[in-house]
Specification:
By secondary structure, the chain is of the alpha+beta class. It is about 35% helix and about 20% strand.
Length: about 220
């Protein structure tokens, strides 16, 4: 059996997530009771990274009780930040569908993560980035949608906003801010809406799969 006398050279594993040095800094800042606004300022990179896959904080916001003048707000401290990479933002330039929602299956410091991205023809999800916000209201979704626009602007990229369609649940906070940020005018034909819902109800009465597939062709 042949045995080489040279040392084996193994490729260094690719580092992912927050490095240990940054984690130590964050822990020390928490111990010193440093405000989140200051922590984000310390960690934020002033220059967009050259590496297409390196994440950076695209934008962040903080609001303190004495800075909030909205009568409809709950007057508590708030924060928002959005993390992305160049390659993830590029996904926004090649699709005209946008998904946005908060998920409580993925959390940070007990706050939900907001996922925003698109899907392709084989139903694979492609994120644009993710956000963490202390709330789940209109201002938070306004912040997220503006992050997408600002990020593309920083990279000299564009998305087709005229053909952009939102895919989300019935939360008005999402749809209202989507229409506001992307300057879309929404008009609802109530008669058409009723007709579509009636057709959907009728489809559910199909006795078998073959009947359903024949009926659904009218909507293809």
């Amino acid at each position: 059996m042949y045995e080489t006398g040279d040392d084996h050279l193994h490729q260094e594993p690719k580092s992912t997530g927050i490095n240990e040095q940054s984690k130590e800094v964050i822990c020390e800042l928490f111990k010193m009771k440093t405000k989140l606004k200051r922590i984000l300022k310390i960690l934020e990179e002033e220059v967009i990274p050259d590496d297409d896959d390196k994440p950076w904080v695209l934008k962040y916001q903080t609001e303190y009780e004495d800075e909030i003048d909205d009568d409809n707000d709950d007057d508590v401290n708030k924060f928002r930040f959005f993390v992305t990479t160049k390659i993830l933002l590029f996904n926004a330039t090649i699709s005209n569908k946008i998904h946005a929602d908060a998920t409580y299956k993925l959390i940070w410091q007990e706050f939900p993560c907001f996922i925003i991205g698109t899907t392709d023809m084989i139903k694979q999800f492609h994120p644009y980035g993710f956000a963490v916000c202390s709330n789940e209201k209109e201002k938070d979704f306004e912040f997220i949608f503006n992050c997408i626009r600002d990020g593309l602007h920083y990279l000299n990229l564009q998305m087709n906003e005229q053909k952009l369609a939102l895919i989300a649940d019935v939360a008005e906070a999402i749809s209202n801010e989507f229409l506001k940020v992307f300057e879309k005018h929404h008009t609802e034909d109530k008669n058409l809406h009723t007709e579509i819902m009636d057709d959907i109800d009728t489809l559910q009465l199909s006795k078998n799969k073959k009947t359903f597939e024949i009926a659904i062709q009218d909507y293809s």
